[in-house]
Every structure is written in structure tokens, then in C-alpha cells.
TrEMBL record:
Name of this chain's protein: Tautomerase
Organism: Siminovitchia thermophila
EC number: 5.3.2.-
Span of domain 4-oxalocrotonate tautomerase-like: 2-60
Top-level EC class as recorded in UniProt: isomerase
């Protein structure tokens, strides 16, 4: 059972997230041979003030 975690900034529409899940499931299934029904995807959305690179939060850039 493949388990995929996708971390991204909040703000995508439900339609975008649905399309993302469908395409990632398809890619995992095609490349690993796992059935699509066994692919689990978790989307973790975060705000820009909870993510930093180079000592600076994205909300401050």
C-alpha cells in the first residue's frame, strides 16, 4: 500500500486538490504496479507563516 504525503501552501481549490489526487494516484499505480485502490494520499496544507527557508518565513518574503 503506497502512502504519499503532499505538503503545500493552502489556497488551492477543491477541484485542484481533486485533480492532484487523481493524477498522483495514477502515476503511483502506473510506476509501482500497485492498484489504484491501495494508494493512500494525505494532503497537508500549511500557511506561509509556518514554513521557512534560509531563516525567513515565506509570509515575510
Amino acid at each position: 500500500m503506497p502512502l504519499v504525503t503532499i505538503k503545500m501552501f493552502e489556497g488551492r481549490t477543491e477541484e485542484q486538490k481533486k485533480a492532484l489526487v487523481e493524477k498522483v494516484t495514477e502515476a503511483i499505480s502506473e510506476t509501482t504496479g500497485a492498484s489504484a485502490d491501495s494508494v493512500t494520499i494525505v494532503i497537508e496544507e500549511m500557511t506561509k507563516n509556518h514554513y521557512a527557508v534560509g531563516g525567513k518565513r515565506y509570509s515575510d518574503l
